[in-house]
Amino acid sequence: MRRHHDLTEGGVGRRMLGMAAPMIAGTFAMTSFSLADTWFVSRLGTVPLAAMGFTFPVVMIMGCVGMALGTGATAIVSQALGDNDHARARRVSTDCLVLALCIIMSLGTIGFLTMEPLFRAMKAPDDVMPLIRSYMTVWFLFAGPSFLAMPANNIMRAAGDTRFPSLVMICGALLNCILDPILIFGWGPIPAMGILGAAIATAISRFAALVLVLVVLHRRYRLVARPTARLSVMLHSWSQALHIAGPALVSYLLHPLSMFCITRIVAGYGKTAVAALGAGGRIEMFAYLIPMALGISLVPLVGQNYGGGRYDRVAECRLYSERFAMVWGAIVALVFFTAAPSMAALFTKDTATERTLVLYLRIMPFGYGMREVLRYVTLILNGISRPIASLKLNAFFLIVLTVPCALLGARLWGIAGVFAGMMVASNVAGLVALSYGNRQMTPERLAALVVAGRTTTSDSLPGKTEESTT
What we know:
Largest sheet: none
Strand content: under 5%
Shape: globular
Helix content: over 70%
Number of domains: 1
Number of helices: 18
Structural class: mainly alpha
């Protein structure tokens, strides 16, 4: 029976492209979840679109939790597979899925109970709040099953399989696109539910994807077992994953936190500005489709090679990804700057919203390339079990640079200055990450850190769970 794909052999560039290529369609499908919701809801008018804009940072938080737990599991599982310890990989993946379900459902419950003060703190207007409540009630109450698909997909990628996770995302996106117009606008006996229908469509689609990926993880890769009744074994698995997932979660949560602050700043320019910000955030996901596909392959590829002691291949992954990010960023900036009016017209008919959205699409893309450099470096740091360094780089970008630069830009040039400040922050942070990688992530440096015992992986990799020694 095939246990996993060995990523410690073969050309690094070929491996990266081989894993990234299937994920292009998958990342497009993943993006289309929120993009389809935004496009269909935009047909309802500016107020519903503004409601979507207010929900964006909060929805990101739920997604960040799923991604962080998935990152922790992926790093440990891939390192275990690189070390040829399948039993430990199975135990960690199973226990991490249990942990993810508990955490995400708890956060969903807390979010549901604190919904009103949460969105009031974001300055949501009275006429928008009923729509926000309608949409977020579904998100909060069904967050657990929906977002558990994210760490489950990550675990499958740890085994070197990017084709099936991509297929799962495509199927989920297609189902979402079919359900969106039916539930939002009504069809036959199904009544029009407006923005509530968009939330229900996404929840159903994500739950279907979850079921599918869990079945394949269990039957094909044997990476899902019965939850252990031995608390000590489960806590050991959790501690290994949380060593990476904890800092990664804080790092991921900094993104919606910064978006929360940015949304408050932009809200001072009216509902049309918030609507443009929300639509722009979803449109720019297209710029990240191919870079995201490459990024998704980095943690399992780096993890397996790091677990197998192939530090030269880890360094090659960093060099390939950084060069790609800079070239891709330059191309996207040119395309978005030229096509901004046409893209904006697709997502809004309101003149003021369209004008602000064009500004967003002509300014922000000039920071996309260096932002991807930063993201790749932090992903690789997670893959080699150095999550604190990853967290520090993200904190520098989001807290030290993004919010202050946006505030300064707003003071100097209004709404255009907000976008310009965010773009400058992306470029500065990317340059810092580039310099850090060149100094700290060479083969010699990585090998020296492991030998000296200055990485947490030296504690976790040799250690076998009791199950793995039986």
